[in-house]
Amino acid sequence: MTDLGTIVASPLEEVAPPRGQHGAAAWFLWIARRLGLAVLTLWLVSILVFLATAALGDPIRAILGRDYNANPGRVAELEKLLNADASIFSRYFDWLGGLLTGDLGTSLASGRPVSELISGPVQNSAMLVFLAAIVMIPVSFLIAMISVHYRRRRPDTVIQTVLLAIAGLPEFVIGVLLLALLATTVFKVFPAVTISSPTGHPWDNWKVMVLPTLTLVLWVSPYVSRIVRASLLEVIDSEYVELARLKGIPEGVVMRKHALLNAIVPGIQVIALQLAFLAGGVVVVETLFSYPGIGLQLVDSVRNHDVQVVQALSMIIASVYVVVNLIADLLSILLTPRARTAISS
Amino acid sequence: MTADQSHEHEHVSLSGEEAPPPPPIAPAEPGTFKKALRQKRFTVGLGITVLLVAFVIFAPYLAPYGENEVAGPPYNKATGLFGTDYLGQDVLSRVMHGGGEILLIALLGTLLGMVLGIAIGVVAAYGGGWWDEVLMRLNDVILSFPQILLALVVLTALQRPSAWVLIVLVGVSHAPRVARLARGVALGIVTRDFVIAAEALGERRSRVILAEVLPNMNAPLLAEGGLRLTYSIGLVGALGFLGFSADPGAANWGQMIQENRLGLATQPWAVLAPVLIIAIFAIGTNLMADGIAQVAQRGDN
Amino acid sequence: MTATSSSDAAPVEKKGGLVVEDLSVLLTGKDIDVVNDIDLVLKPGEVVGLVGESGSGKTTVGTSLLNYSRAGAYIGSGRVLLEGRDILSMKWQEVRQVRGEEIAYVPQDPASALNPAIRIGKQIVELLELRGIGTKESRLQGARDGLAEVGLPSDDEFLSRYAHQLSGGQVQRVALAMAFLPKPKVLVLDEPTTGLDVTTQAMVLETMAELCRTHGVSALYVTHDLAVVANIADRVAVMYAGQIAELGPKEAMFRSPSHPYTRALLDSIPHLSHARALTGIPGRTPAPGARPSGCRFNDRCAYAVDACRKDVPELREIAPDHQVRCIRAGEIGTWDISRGVVPDADPDRKRDIILSIDNLNIFYGRKHVVHNVSFDLAKAEVIALVGESGSGKTTISRSVGGLHKDWTGTITFDGDVLAKSARQRDATNRKRLQYIFQNPYLSLNPRLTIEQIVKRPMELFGIASGKEATDRVVELLDQVALGPRMLKYQASRLSGGERQRVAIARALAAEPDVLICDEITSALDVSVQGSIVALLEGLRKQRGISMLFVTHNLALVRSIGSGVQILKAGRVVESGSVVTVMETPKEEYTRNLLSKSPRID
Question: What subcellular compartments does it reside in (chain C) (predicted)?
Answer without folding.
Answer: Cell membrane
